[in-house]
Amino acid sequence: MTEQEALDWLDARGDVSRETLVALHTLRDLVATENENQNLIARSTLDQFFARHIVDSVQLLDHAGTPKNWIDLGSGPGFPGLVIAIMRPAIPVLLVESRRRRVDFLLHVAKRLNLANVSVAGARLETVPSEPFDAISARAFAPLDRLLPLAHRFSKPDTVWVLPKGRGAANELEAVQTSWQGKFRIVPSVTDPEAAIIVADHVQPKGRR
Ligand SMILES: C[S@@+](CC[C@H](N)C(=O)[O-])C[C@H]1O[C@@H](n2cnc3c(N)ncnc32)[C@H](O)[C@@H]1O
């Protein structure tokens, strides 16, 4: 997907207001500026920011149903969590990120964009108190066989998991077949024909009823 295609894709959705688009452009500027101080995104992706980071995040909404709250694991500079929060100001979004400087950046962006729906847990996920969420996202955080044991305590049966993956989605799913059950599916990413998103619900360790 080219940058122009990404902007057209957002425009065609019908749920990206002028104000939201301005906020997404401001996010781009803030990431670009802070990228001089800390390594938030690969420099090579700055020119394709909307395709590689914004649309890559926004598309998760199309698989997540109508969640009333959302947790994003290992948010880094805010993908996909901050983008979800910008797109859906009525949904409380908890961003979990362990690196201090990234946490500071997330808080700075939330303040700058007046995102009252954003909370940041500046800690390792392992230490965040358990609480069930309607939607769980994690991009480039951990493979499924590490992610599910770590994050399952933030789910309930109808929680939707939306997990952008590269080319390895099928292999990651295969690796959890013996230990986890649920309704898992692999959907194509709109940004990259080689990439996929693992979408799941009713995820639980095998052997539990
Ligand atoms: C590869 S980055 C991906 C960032 C972002 N999701 C993205 O796609 O651009 C992984 C992030 O997870 C954070 N992280 C790694 N292990 C973590 C843990 N146990 N708890 C919370 N954050 C963690 C790292 O600090 C890093 O910012």
UniProtKB/TrEMBL annotation:
Amino-acid positions noted as binding S-adenosyl-L-methionine in the UniProt annotation, renumbered to this chain: 74, 79, 125-126, 139
InterPro entries: rRNA_ssu_MeTfrase_G, SAM-dependent_MTases_sf
Keywords: Cytoplasm, Methyltransferase, rRNA processing, S-adenosyl-L-methionine, Transferase
KW Magnesium (keyword) present: no
Known EC number: 2.1.1.170
A Pfam family hit: GidB
Source taxon at top rank: Bacteria
GO molecular function annotation: rRNA (guanine-N7-)-methyltransferase activity
Annotated Gene Ontology cellular component terms: cytosol
Primary location group: cytoplasm
Subcellular compartments: Cytoplasm
Catalytic activity: guanosine(527) in 16S rRNA + S-adenosyl-L-methionine = N(7)-methylguanosine(527) in 16S rRNA + S-adenosyl-L-homocysteine
Position of the signal peptide: none
Record's keyword annotation contains Transferase: yes
General function of this protein: Specifically methylates the N7 position of guanine in position 527 of 16S rRNA.
UniProt similarity note: Belongs to the methyltransferase superfamily. RNA methyltransferase RsmG family.
Protein's name in the database: Ribosomal RNA small subunit methyltransferase G
Upper classification of the organism: Bacteria, Pseudomonadati, Pseudomonadota, Alphaproteobacteria, Sphingomonadales
